[in-house]
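User: Before I run my own analysis I want an independent prediction to cross-check against. Here's the chain; please return only the structure tokens and, at the end, one sentence I can use as a sanity check.
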Amino acid sequence: VTGYVTEAQLRVLLRGAVVTPPTDDGEVGTSPVAVEAALRLTRTQRVEIQRQLSSLGFDTGVADGLWGSKTRTAIKSWQRANRQSQTGYLT
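Assistant: Structure tokens:
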């Protein structure tokens, strides 16, 4: 258990969405907030993650790509169910 969503787990959540990792050589912070920001997820990708979480039974509310408290709670619940650190951020 690392406390982070693995690449394989992220693929399951994205299901076909394309994630482009950062291309600059700048150092990424290690906090969950910084790591999620470095993923540079598009709004379309965030919507798809919300849809996938909802389809797995984790209520994100409206799949609109805006990650409010319901989405953060859904991510935490998914992390708990997958024995991950419950940060509420994709890392």
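Sanity check: The mean pLDDT is 84.
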